[in-house]
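Schema walk-through. Below, the input block comes first and the output block second. Nothing else is stored per chain. Lengths vary across the set, and this one has 275 residues.
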Amino acid sequence: MTSQTYRQTINEWRKERDETIRKKNGWLALSGLYWLKLGKNQIGSDPKSEIQLPERIPQNIGSIEYNGRSVTFRAAPGQEVQVNDKPADFAILQPDISENPSYLQLQDIQLVVIQRGNRMGVRIWDNQREKRRSFPARTWYDIDENFRIQASYTAYERPKMAYFPDLTGEKSEFPVDGYVSFQFNGNHYQLDINKEEDGTFFVRFWDPTAKNNTYPTGRYLITDIEPDNKIFLDFNKAYNPPCAFTDFATCVFAPEQNHLDFDVTAGETYQHQEG
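--- output ---
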């Protein structure tokens, strides 16, 4: 791949990343996150509702009941609600971590139950949100081919459990399948990875640019795996977690063992808030 072709590929990838967060039911359409209490949780625009929807929605469209184990939805009389595109008066709701999550749809609102540890919540998308159009374009460092680094993968004998900090201040336990190791400026580094269903390696990492120029809790990266099975960490494609775009995401951040000691001046940047 020529240098010009490479730069074009990266720029096209970055443009696609910017478009993705603006899509229907994308990150910029997120408008709410409510943790469920035991018993009934009313859904609607009534200010007393446990799950608050925009004013244009009826005051009461139904309720979600949580019994400590399962979550069910019951529609209020006369309300037209769909679950996974089919009309439903009643449904057992599968959470987002299941193979087939249950999506509630009402006009241009979508809801899904999310499970985080022992907690259940409801995430809401409102596709009329102005943010889908007005949110500033994502910003990036200049492309630097020195930050496309060949790496090698080592699988752990058996996946180990590792603790990853999340937005709520808790630590979530995830299986770590192995690690990628690489050389940079004469030093050896390794990063724990999670193996995705499509076979790619997903990395959460932190570096010192997080103090000033990139997202404070670190960034994400999916490794490039070439047809000949060569692996590359292309930090030009390091990107911010969803929490950089919405207050309603529940991001998981880089574990301590994935903190790098050199500045990764490549990939997505972030405007730090003053004060």
